[in-house]
Fold these 3 entries.
Entry 1:
Amino acid sequence: MSFNDVLSRIDIDFVNDKLNSITSNDIEEIINRNSFSFSDFLYLASKPAENFLEEMAKKARRLTLQHFGRTISLYIPLYLSNYCLNSCIYCGFRHDNDIPRKTLGLPEIEREMQLIAEKGFTQILLLTGEHPHEAPLSYLVEAVKLAKKYFALVTIEIYPLDYQGYRALHEAGVDGITLYQETYDRKVYSEMHGTGPKSDYLFRLDAIERSAKVGIRNIGIGILLGLSDFRLDAYLLACHAVYLLKHYWQSFLSISFPRLKEIPGGLNIPYIVTDRNLTQLILAFRLVFPEIGLVISTRESAELRDNLLPLGITRISAGSHTEPGGYSAPDIKSAQFYVEDRRSPMEVVSKIKSIGYDPVWLDWSSEFSSKDRQD
Ligand code: SF4
């Protein structure tokens, strides 16, 4: 049974009714527990739970210290290509957006990697748009092999592949994959991804399982906050997490919280997700899933990221550029999205230390977790 089978059996109207009927009394009944189960997720993500963020934050901080200590691991994204065949209305790389396009050649990739390695990073995330002609599998394999020369942990955030593709990347040295479904709401998904290969909801939904099946140990999922009703989508994301933890227990699972801040062309964001909403979701995931990684990127402001750090976040990016070649020749016109936290990696490291946490350049927690579970 795939996650799609599970998803198809969820009665969305029932979940919605349940979400809308939760009261403050219901939250009071569960909030003083020392541990939470999946059945509590809907309560913790509901509107009335917004009034209990302080209590949730105290428990989330304690649980994170228990499971991850004071470590915050650091990674940096490297965009290899901004060519894309898709039409995701929210993305600067969508095919009909008039921006300078570029695919880095291997010497350019190596130059970028050298610059990144000089900053101290040992974890890198390689990204592309979805254009199998501009960034084919053979190109990605070479990029991964190059990355292994410079970085201990190489993860990818690229278009979904078949088994053969993931196997080739795993053999080349890929340690982890991040792949957001963007939204689990099929209707919204179709509206947002009208043309291009990404319009295939199911091929994308099953991709993370394909990657786990070929042995990629670090798997990351998420929704793009702002596309749909975030409370319902977060619940479906939690369902996906439960499914993956059960079926791919040898993997280390992370959840990311990308949030739409603006849409190219000045379109309105369909569902505004406030800082408070985002904080609540992070707390709800931490309380129900104390052992998974929680990731926040430089899409968010420095101030918000600093405030979120002790509440459950285990991994953050720093010093990011979202355009191919951005570390040697920044060019905001060809970027995927605007980076809000523009601090240097060393500034981020100083901040982490100043609040009593330990910045780690290599995420050993995920490595140990996956190996422990394997043995
Ligand atoms: S979100 Fe990804 S697939 Fe969609 S347009 Fe942007 S780069 Fe392409």
Note: The domain at 3-374 is CATH 3.20.20.70 (TIM Barrel).
Entry 2:
Amino acid sequence: MSKDTNTYLLQVKDLRKTFPDASQPIEILKGTELTVEAGQNISITGQSGSGKSTFLNVISGLETFDSGEVIWGDKSLKSLNEKGISELRADYLGFIFQAYYLIPELNAFENILMAARLKGKITADKKDRAQEMLEKVNLQDRAKHSVLKLSGGERQRVAIARALINQPKVILADEPTGNLDEKTADEIIELIFNITEYAQCSLILVTHNPQFAKMTHKHYQLHDGQLIKS
Ligand SMILES: Nc1ncnc2c1ncn2[C@@H]1O[C@H](COP(=O)(O)OP(=O)(O)OP(=O)(O)O)[C@@H](O)[C@H]1O
Ligand SMILES: [Mg+2]
């Protein structure tokens, strides 16, 4: 029996993406397929340059695609304009990057709250949620700290809290431990798994670390433009 498609948070069907190039176009995604269910965490590994970041950019609507389907819940990105995509993205997705991308002028608490501010007025509820997330990432005593004075691991904790403040359905993490030492990387991965479970959101983790990849419900390798389950 075929599965009810509404149970998927994310569906990617026959996705194709080519970058133009001076000599010949570079085909990056060649019929890529993926489904993600609620509460599921998956990992993607693959050689440098295989297209992992491109895939995340395309499925989050930050980058266009040539053909195929990207569906968030029951909404196909093809049915939305740019404004519609960015409004839904703010509700639906949270992002964690290798390089943190915090705002240097703001303290830890303000950085977390910034993601909520982009969606509208800051309410007492949102401040409570920011405080809750700050505590969840164990940085309650660093709230007023300039992010420039935080360690790499602490900066990534702020970014994790920021990714979760709007209660997204899916977290996309692109090599979130790429800039961290081994011990801190282990702590951050554990935190990402725990906090996404606590927040009941799904996770797509791109990593070069095979140990981390093995820890997810499903593991795929991006090879020659296709996601291959391993
Ligand atoms: N805007 C662009 N224009 C042209 N080519 C691009 C563009 N963005 C990415 N590429 C090319 O697409 C390929 C895939 O890049 P991508 O960054 O997605 O790889 P990746 O798997 O994330 O690699 P890494 O593991 O090093 O992060 C690379 O060959 C890259 O040069
Ligand atoms: Mg990448």
Note: The CA atoms of residues 201 and 219 lie 17 Å apart.
Entry 3:
Amino acid sequence: MYKIPLPDLKEKIILSGKISAIDLDTKIKTKINELSGLISEEGAAHIIANELGINLIPKAEKMKIKELYAGMKDISTVGKITRIFEMREFQKNDRSGKVCSLILGDETGTMRLVLWNDQVDQVKELSENMTILVKSAYVRENNNAKEIHLGQQGELIPNPEGETITNVRESASTFQRKKIQELSDNQENIEIMGTIVQVFDPRFFYTCPRCRARVNDNQCAEHGPVEPETGYVLNLVLDDGSGTIRTVFWKNQIHHLLQKEEADLLTFKDNPPEFESLKTDLLGEQYKLRGRVKKNDMFERVEFSVQFVEKANPEEEIKQLEQ
Ligand SMILES: [Zn+2]
């Protein structure tokens, strides 16, 4: 059974024209009573849909983002990439792995697409604003949010023929807004907003294009001589009145923060004083950041690893306070 939220379920049943909204509510209550309250409203609605012969999810060759529900398998969908997050590596039971996620959207909504291990290598061929076809994927729920994962036969096809997505409808954020004071180690999907009070110089490093390990003198410990990729990291301190936190920006998020591209960043590597005026521009500016809170073991401090950066919108902030 797919996990379809109750309002969506009811809407689908009513749209079939086989039952009115009022009758449906009565029928759901009756059904729950019949089953001595052992069933949820969602469960009752599913049974009623079944009894009325309503196909809740007509299986389409390509599903719209809004039609994707947790529990679905072997689905295909087309979406535009609105965001590519940083790849990250993790250790689990002596084995290391990597994960990278991106946000995919169409005119019905947006959803996170998560890639694991070898699948992550495909990210190199992708870029933001690109339309992709996702094949043989499945949908699961994580932290109350739906995610698309690739199955065994899963495939990502960039720029599929005859498919373009012009408008993307942003789904409501699944990130939880917190005050900096409330942050503690190991929190994910967090949103903070504050003023930049300190900016450090970017640091540059080289990585192996195949395994992403750091390389020295163009030599990867595992892959031998390689043409390294340049990576960079930028730290800045954000203050929201409740406290301050060091925030860590990696490549893509630095591009978003500074509205610059790789070529621009490389000029700062060769000429650090050029970066000084950008620092001054950033100081005192307000930003909304989304990401995860992580302990930096080396420095014994909690840091915010940025996955999304956006200039704070004062009107939106006022609305949040009024809620
Ligand atoms: Zn390597």
Note: The pocket of zinc ion is lined by residues 208, 210-211, 213, 220, 222-223 (CB under 6 Å).
